[in-house]
What does this fold into?
Amino acid sequence: MAVAQPVVVAVVTEKQGRRNKEERRVKRIKKAKIRRAPSRSLMALSATALALPGIATADSPPTQSTVSYKYSNYQEDDVSRREAPFGERERYEIDVNQFRLLMPTGRNTSFQLDAIRESMSGASPWFTTADSAGNPLVNLSGASGIRDQRSEVALTGSYYLENGTVSANVGYSEEDDYRSRYIGLSGQRNFNREMTTVAVGLSYADDDIFPTDAELFNRVVSENKDVSSAYISISQIINQTTIFQTALSITEQSGYLSDPYKLLDVRPDDKTQIGWSNAFRHFFIDADAALHVNYRYYHDDFGISSHTLDASWYQNVGRDWQVVPHIRYYSQSAADFYTSIDDFTKPIEQFQSSDYRLSAFGAISGGINLIGRFNDWTLTLSTDRYIANEKYSAYNVNEPGAGLVSFFRVSLGIDYSF
Amino acid sequence: MKPVFLLFFLILAGCTQVQSFERGRLAQPEMAWQPDALEATLNDHIFFSKEASSGGSSAAGGGCGCN
It folds into this structure.
């Protein structure tokens, strides 16, 4: 769902004011479009159009259409020999194709189409056992591994009012063993001379799970879960170069929440989750760069709490380029029923899971992105190296997770405004 | 919770009124909440499937068999 964006207009100096008049006359003749991400002087000129009375004070659809495509390759590190002395060690590789089209469709409306197609292959943890010293060992799923494709499509419509925006979205995702249908509704309103924006949203998803080779491996044949979620956020302009946002979300999941591909995995049939996110943006004029800092606190009734802290530095280089180093720190506690070694002697009704994603661990990730903006085109190259380790955890680690993941991701994106 | 509310009031008290024509810096793409929307969606999806946490700044979106 889109998050609140302040309504903005560029400053106009006296010198530019005179240039503006001539430029606007030329523009009217040529019917030139307002650029979405142009050079700074051109943006100041184009933004004066937005300063005209009646336009500046209303929420309005984007002035241009944009089509975006991003290709990503995601590769997990092999499981270490120490954790998997026998058999398969190769994990997941995923190719992701993302497509987005955003178009104004009238004075007050716009729509957005999203499509995702991803292919995944490889193996994932099936069950854990103990070695002679009692350390957990990971056994990956079968020699043939998994080969799956996922397709997702979503449509969002927005209606722009005097002091706010209302949006609705609907989506569908399908893969060999999973299907999800979801809807959402959100709205935002500006206050305090557009210095403050409050946004609220609701969403609902209905998911069906039908694991492959269900009878062969004694898995559940067909299950269902539904997810309801709500959020509220407040964004505030602090000064000409600083903005801050705080948001709270609550999610309720109910139905089949276990992992059907794990040999032994029994989880409660409902889960309540809360997330509290904070975002800070500051522009350093002398450095010609922007700093992004985000922090999120999460808690759920499986017993998991987490902290997420990330920072990015958007450094402008010349007229057309941006270099963006970024870093992220994540740490979570373990679920109440997490066990690093599957216990097949426990009664089947008792909750337990050796899924490393429910263990206490920390993760550090980072990379550098390169962005180039040329007239109507934007090219982005982004990278991310992620390493999870129980040693990075800010929480107590009673049982280190078996099969913590590390990965490398590279993406190439292209945007065109028209 | 009291220190949290105090912090928010201090932040609001520190806000200077910024006229619409003074918001040029805030309009620059690098000052957006999510300058690259597809990247943000991709990261949300990857971290959602490799970690236990989700949500925060928006309601839950679509599902996948990945978590």
Summary: Confidence is low (pLDDT under 50) at residues 32-57 of chain A. DSSP finds two helices and 20 strands in chain A. Chain A touches chain B through 108 residues (CB under 8 Å). Residues 78 and 171 of chain A are 34 Å apart (CA to CA).
